[in-house]
Amino acid sequence: MTLQSLDIKRRSATTTPSPQARQTPEIAKLIDVSACTGCKACQSACMEWNDLRPEIGHNAGRLDNPADLSDAAWTVVRFTETERNGRLEWLIRKSGCMHCSDPGCLKSCPSPGAIVQYKNGIVDFQQENCIGCGYCVTGCPFNVPRVSPRDDKAYKCTLCSDRVAVNLAPACAKACPTGAIRFGAKEDMKAHAETRVAELKERGYSQAGLYDPPGVGGTHVMYVLHHADQPESYGGLPANPSISPLVELWKGVAKPLATLALAGVALGSLFHYVTKGPNEVSKEIEDEIEREDREAVK
Amino acid sequence: MTNHWVDIGNADVVLVMGGNAAEAHPVGFKWVIEAKQRNKAKLIVVDPRFTRSASVADIYAPIRTGTDIAFLGGVINYLLDKDKIQHEYVKAYTDFSFLVDDGYDFENGLFSGYDAEKRGYDKKTWNYVKGEDGYVKTDPTLQNPRCVYRLMKRHYSRYTPEMVEKICGTPREAFLKVCETMASTATPDRAMTILYALGWTQHSQGSQIIRAGAMVQLLLGNIGIAGGGVNALRGHSNIQGLTDLGLMSNLLPGYMTLPGDKETDYAAYIARRAPRPMRPNQLSYWQNYEKFHVSLMKAWFGDAATKANDWAFDYLPKLDTLHDVLRVFEDMYQGKMTGYFCQGFNPLASFPNKAKLGAALAKLKYLVVIDPLSTETSEFWKNFGEFNDVDPAKIQTTVFRLPSTCFAEEDGSLVNSGRWLQWHWKGAEPPGEARGDAAIMAGIFLRLRDKYRKEGGAFPDPILNLTWPYRDPHDPAPDEVAREYNGKALADLADPKDGKIFRKAGEQLDSFAQLRADGSTSCGCWIFSGAWTQAGNQMARRDNSDPWGHGQTLNWAWAWPVNRRILYNRASADPAGRPFNPEKKQIWWNGSAWTGTDVPDFAAGSDPADGMGPFIMNPEGVARFFAREMMAEGPFPEHYEPFETPIGVNPMNTNPRALNNPAARVFRGDMEVFGTARDFPYAATTYRLTEHFHYWTKHVRINAILQPEQFVEIGEDLASEKGIATGDRVKVRSNRGYIKAVAVVTKRIKALTVNGQKVHHVGIPIHWGFTGVARQGFLSNTLTPFVGDANTQTPEFKSFLVNIEKLQERS
Question: Could you tell me if the ipTM is greater than 0.90?
């Protein structure tokens, strides 16, 4: 199920055109690692809002619990102890889906509409269309999606698309007590990040910076890092994430078909405009376009 | 807190010591982040462990557990030695210039007047010199060697950075960096706040640690100002309310005190608590004690409290000794108790030496547990394998479990750490047979009263005459109780100046300033007076406007006393009444009265020229560095080793009697089960984790998911010495028992070099037990020693000795 209040920008394995009428600003969640105390209120709020209850696990010799992301743990705080120039640092990062502008999961997904990208930037999984192939897992440069052993569907953070659709901040941002998680227009978040980075530099973190990796077209979950030159030290945040070559290969095979589909869409639109004008769509034309689309995908 | 949560955002330096605010107070900690981002504040964390608070700190200094006085004594020495003090402040607002009795002395670890037999002091020399006029003699030039300043300087000159390093294990460089940063707030335009919690209180000298922190703040002129103060972050949402209402064995509501068993004369009882000013022109506000006391007795006993019977003075129990929880469990253990009521309290988990507690409970005839949860205490008789290995057949105690509501299922007020009384409304109906605590207590009381009425008994008067004016006697409502603690007029009250009636009989009072000692007012807790006035429930106010931009939201809820947000705020202005820091001014003299951004903590019409001091609750009118006879172990905080010390000596002295707190109470049998470093070489400390709240949230699935299984933390150094890898199961033993848990091996706990030897710490989170939905675990208080602070008897949970070994088993 998609949300009618959110326009879709892209849909996995689909070539129907995206809606254009509404002006949707891009949003982003900004996680300021330097203000995070690892209290896990974000994990708690995520479980509450999304009705998730992973198993009561074990302690594996670390404070991270649940120990990793799962079908029922969409965000996990990762704790890393490092020593730099004799100074101990305890780097604490809330991990989860980054909501890439160029989402590897969506690109690699073969099932129509199992993964959508909203115009606001949220990448969302639609479990009723998911066939459980796990390609999204391969496609993700951040190792985020998890296929559930319960129902063979892939799950991950939705950025609370249901909340965002009605102008509420994601549950984690709402619950964060220190203001380490902020949510708003991506432009505003970048501007706020600048002030945070400047303050960190003033405090002696010369490599402080914003993590908004260009390899995936930027993300809609961004981090303020004290050591932006070493993102790997924050529980394995990739330095230069990009979509796996396997996905590119998959796309290479699919490309001629996609082109054909696009041409069909364009022809259909033109025919539609010439014969009926811009505001009415006849049943026949709709059917015709849909048929063409289906053939293009096959 | 002298200040309040929002005010932390005004600080320029934040010291987190004796607590772990980020973890134990994650929501309030937002104000620390706010101070960092808004004021570029520096955050200092001093702790044996590199905590989550330390993870966002600018400066972290490690310290051996239980040595905070040595550290703070070192800071005091640094500030005095480098002359980094707020001169105008200390000269005018503290006892710097007061002269001390010639007999007062300190020698090799002991103050004058020690009695080793009694483990206590004859404190008569711990006092000031008084002149013929009855006032304390002072030397404003501070040259007299017997003035408090000189005595203090001499006392703390022994706490050199080398000595600090030797006792605390804090590297000299880190210590000096902390001192330097703190000292930056000695100027009037900068403020430091101290945030502490149970990491300071739960020691055999906890009260003195807090005093030492307060002394640092006084030297820096940081008390009474925005962004300053000594701020106790309380461990429960309403534990401030508990102390305010006097739920301690020796207290009455509003920090009034019960009489001792020798205090049989009412007038003498009052006189002792209403001290005359010790210096000219001082207010000594406790002189009003009788007004508060009589109003309390009227609230409790109504018409039965009369002038003729000294306002029912004989109804009050007279204390033979302090009946703190440790004493109560000692008495229970000795078989001196028949029954025990345990309300909202899980002592088997929350108090030291679980084996002794369990044995004590087994000697009771009956135990009543009033709680929303199935606590370990209520199941102490049940066998839970290794976690609670008892034989139920041998325990004859009858346990009554009365399910009560939790805070979200009832209306009422909570008092937060910042003394705000905030009204809250129930979010859900209680489940099953659960009833509110007031209804449960009413049920017990009404039955008891009925029995006394029918059968008589020894001195039934206090029970038969207790006021019980509630709409439904079986269920006193929160609003009725709130009106009662606010207080009301019992007769028409006239203004003595013009004779005009300002409150008619039956009307709610505006503040404790209206209380009278003639029986014409009643008030259940004088400091709460003003919370529910004739204008209604002030605690329910929700206007968060902040006209001065200092977070001083005077129309949000209500703070005691009289809606004042920062205590001692008179000290934020110089002696002439001008704010020390015009940027963050609190109150000032406008030529005819005191006014400001806060409710003045002062006599509103007292002209600065009259020289009244800002510390109006003290008969001195100023703050005390020298505590006189008020503390058990001495007028100045002095370092003593924890009762279980990993080094076995006190580097501050060579006196075997002054190894540990010489005035701490130790029961027979408990001394014998203290461990020594030979068998238990590692310093241990217990603490809370952010994922859990005490022993409650292990009953909650989400919290259990976030931190499912009991663990202990050890450093990499100790782990490699013991062959322990992270995730291994280990057994941790003290001389009182053992627990088993997962080992978390971390870089965040480092071995410290103390007195020439290496000291390792073992960190022991407290949250597991044998009831609830989290994985079953051992009560960590199986390990802790049965000894408390010499003044408050708060147990020494933070410093004791253990040994640790690797287990072969898997969880």
Answer: yes
Taking the C-alpha atoms of residue B12 and residue A288, their distance in angstroms, rounded to an integer, is: 70
When the candidates are 3.20.20.70, 3.30.565.10, 3.30.1360.120, 3.40.50.740, the CATH number that belongs to B325-454 is 3.40.50.740
CA distance A252 to chain B (A): 43
Residue pLDDT, tens place only, B76-90: 999 999 999 999 999
Tell if the CB–CB gap between A37 and B56 is shorter than 8 Å: yes
Tokens, residue B771: 């009831």
Residues of B in contact with A61 (CB under 8 A): 711, 725-728, 742-745
Task: Tell me the pLDDT tens digit for each residue of B146-181.
Answer: 999 999 999 999 999 999 999 999 999 999 999 999
Instruction: Determine the residue of chain B that is closest to A54 in CA distance.
Output: B705
Average pLDDT over chain B, rounded to an integer: 97
- CATH code: domain B656-806 is 2.40.40.20
How far, in Å, are B341, B582, B685 from residue B231 at the CA level? 32, 23, 22
Residues 748-807 of B with CB under 8 A from A: 748, 773-775
Report the b/e string of B766-781 with b at 16+ CB within 10 A.
Answer: bbbbbbbbbbbbbbbb
Other Cβ atoms within 10 Å of B742 Cβ, number: 22
Residue A268 in this model has a pLDDT that exceeds 50: yes
Condensed to tens digits (0 to 9), the pLDDT of residues B711-747 reads 999 999 999 999 999 999 999 999 999 999 999 999 9
DSSP H stretches of helix in B526-680: none
Kindly report the nearest CA distance between residue B748 and chain A, in angstroms: 8
Shortest CA distance from B59: residue in chain A = A87
Contacting residues of A for B776, CB less than 8 Å apart: none
Give how far B639 is from chain A: nearest CA, Å: 29
Give the residue from A38, A143, A267, A117 showing the smallest Cα distance to B55.
A38
- Taking the whole predicted model, whether its pTM rises above 0.90 is answered as yes
